[in-house]
Design goal:
643 residues, alpha/beta, 6-stranded mixed β-sheet, 21 helices
Length: 643
């Protein structure tokens, strides 16, 4: 047991956040903490991490429990570098290494190897070496390299200063530190916000093998499904625990709410039946006694509270007023470029794209691949120099932009809608806003003070009013909480028009698209189906490419056309591939030899007799360092040849 929570309560002023929360965290638990925005998720994390104190109840932590907490506003040392921050995460390892070196220097300065001072230093060094080995110090740098590569820092100069990193890069570095540190309880608050698909996939696989417990808050439902096995939901000031990941939690939650509602209805019916019997029979002397017994039965039933009814999610509904032609969009030879002079960059080259009525096309790619630029170009909000874009007859576009630049900060939500749709009634617009959870004061607040989620719902209201037959959307789920995302997905699935949508929301991408357009390396590639199907096709391709690297290409038959001969690799290419395979085999043999040598040297260092021979000890330590450096170099070359 790592931690127990008993009767926890917390308030801020007169606002009650939660009360009577009871839970426990055990070794290797994988917990998702969910709840609507403002429910108190971050407050609960702060209490568990010991950064705040509860008003009622207590949290009991295991002795020496090590907690690592990635906060939304977590910090790093401003004068640190990537390398120094990662080494700081393994402070005990590198402190021990430094002490070993200092002790070795002190031993080297003594000429009398039989003196008590020398023997004392010898014993100290041996204890330090044992501690270093127990901390897995010999593989510390390999761990750092592995995690930094997984978190997207493979191409970074390790001496890059923290203050020169972007906000997203700092968050990734903080996460990398925690992964290397490996606390017994890892707390992650929106850890996936700044990760691309590759980083997310790597992180999910890493966390599956993580030795400690994980408690995470995330709006990434796909991440929650892959990493967690329990779901904690803050609901109505309480904590409800479901023994299932997010996808299964939805079913369990619905079953629980329906069961509670039925139990409450049965209770009301039983109370009504007993009360009715009492009322009808209390006036007669012969039945008065039994009537009074019915009141006692009601008292014995106790008072059952009405089940909590969760707030309804926003109500989205998209309809297409006009039916367009079958061929919605035709793009030929489109190239996307940004910047001038030294800032010039080619984003996409020679794109050809055809979209038919009813398709749900998702566009994905890494940051900077040109996804938003492509949408702006297709919808005429950004010019292009090369290629043609033709929309079909009767196409009516409704566009959702990622930012809020199309909203006036000094207008209210109601004013924005009325200015765009002046023939609408106030009642109709307020009803629409109410369905989107913009009720009462929210409808009259200035847009500049609204949250990102509230602004996103206003912009989605525009699309609902426009009734376009083609929805073009750039990251529509970015600022929405989980219930709002679920509601939006249902509405989009029910929409019978055409969609072109940019998103990094893998849960949405796994359910909505009929086709995915993947932008990478200035090219666009189309995949039929949703996200998992694209992943399957990419994995099959990678497997075929690996097989082709291992199998020589057949000789081109004589007399074939020049086009057919181009299919076969040149002699130089074949020679290079044979040499690459030979070098990979050599490296694998060398890696196996060096791993065995490292193990043998480590065993020799652990021999008690060696501890009294400083010269031999120094020799073996230097030998181990050299072997590990050679092994790391072989690993790096091997990885490069296989990539």
């Amino acid at each position: 047991m790592l931690l127990t929570i008993d009767g926890l309560g917390k308030s801020f002023g007169t606002e009650r956040i939660f009360e009577q929360i009871t839970a426990k965290i055990e070794d290797h638990d994988r917990i998702a903490l969910i709840g609507p925005n403002g429910a108190g998720k971050t407050t609960l994390l702060n209490l568990i991490a010991g950064l705040d104190e509860p008003d009622e109840g207590e949290i009991r932590r295991a002795a020496d429990l090590k907690i690592g907490y990635l906060r939304q506003n977590g910090g790093l040392l401003p004068d640190g570098t990537i390398e120094s921050e990662m080494r700081r995460a393994l402070g005990p390892v590198f402190d021990t290494e430094r002490q070993m070196l200092e002790t070795a220097d002190q031993m080297a300065a003594l000429s009398d190897h039989h003196s008590e001072a020398y023997r004392s230093l010898e014993r100290e060094y041996q204890a330090l070496e044992e501690r270093y080995a127990s901390l897995d110090g010999y593989s510390a740098q390999i761990k750092i390299n592995t995690v930094l590569n997984g978190m997207g820092f493979g191409g970074f100069d390790r001496e890059t200063e923290v203050e020169k990193l972007s906000g997203g890069e700092r968050t990734r570095l903080m996460l990398a530190k925690l992964l290397v540190e490996q606390p017994a309880l890892l707390i992650l608050d929106e850890a996936t916000n700044h990760l691309d698909f590759r980083m997310l996939g790597w992180l999910e696989e890493y966390l599956k093998e993580y030795r400690g417990a994980i408690l995470t808050v995330s709006h990434d439902r796909y991440f929650l499904d892959r990493v967690t096995t329990q779901t904690w939901e803050i609901e109505n000031l309480s904590l409800v625990i479901y023994p299932a990941p997010y996808g299964r939690y939805l079913d369990l939650r619905q079953e629980r709410l329906e069961r509670m509602e039925k139990e409450y209805e049965r209770y009301l019916q039983e109370v009504a039946r007993l009360q009715d019997y009492h009322d009808r029979n209390i006036v007669r002397a012969t039945t008065a006694s039994s009537a009074k017994s019915r009141l006692r039965m009601i008292e014995h039933l106790g008072e059952v509270e009405k089940p909590f009814v969760p707030p309804k999610p926003p109500k989205f509904s998209f309809t297409a007023k006009l039916r367009p032609v079958q061929d919605i969009l035709d793009v030929q030879g489109l190239s996307l470029e940004v910047g001038e002079g030294e800032g010039y960059r080619l984003l996409l080259k020679d794109l050809s794209l055809h979209v038919r009525r009813g398709e749900r096309l998702a566009i994905i790619g890494e940051n900077g691949a040109g996804k938003s630029t492509l949408l702006k170009t297709l919808t005429g909000r950004m010019p292009h120099r090369c290629g043609t874009i033709e929309w079909g007859r009767n196409v009516r576009l409704s566009v959702f932009e990622q930012d809020s630049s199309d909203l006036h900060p000094d207008k209210t939500a109601l004013m924005e809608l009325w200015d765009r749709f002046p023939s609408s009634t106030e009642h109709g617009l307020r009803t629409l806003l109410g369905g989107l959870q913009l009720t009462g004061e929210e409808a009259f607040k200035k847009i500049g003070v609204l949250s990102g989620g509230e602004r996103a719902r206003i912009k989605l209201a525009f699309l609902m009013m426009e009734q376009g037959n083609v929805l073009v959307m750039d990251e529509p789920t970015n600022h929405l909480d989980i219930p709002a995302k679920e509601a939006l997905e249902k509405a989009l699935l029910a929409y019978d028009g055409t969609m072109i949508i940019v998103s990094h929301d893998r849960y949405l991408l796994s359910r909505l698209p009929t086709r995915i357009l993947r932008l990478a390396n200035q090219q666009a590639e189309s995949f039929d189906g949703a996200f998992e199907e694209m992943q399957r096709q990419l994995a099959l391709r990678e497997e075929r490419e690996r097989e082709q690297k291992q199998t020589p290409a057949p000789r081109a038959p004589a007399g074939e056309s020049a086009a057919a001969k181009d299919y076969y690799r040149s002699k130089a290419q074949r020679r290079a591939e044979v040499e690459q395979k030979r070098r990979i085999a050599q490296l694998e043999e060398e890696i196996a030899r060096l791993e065995a040598a490292v193990q043998a040297t480590q065993q020799a260092l652990s021999d008690p007799q060696i501890g009294s021979d400083f010269e031999r000890l120094t020799e073996l330590t230097d030998q181990l360092s050299s072997q590990e450096q050679q092994l790391e170099a072989c690993y790096q070359e091997w990885d490069m040849l296989l990539s």
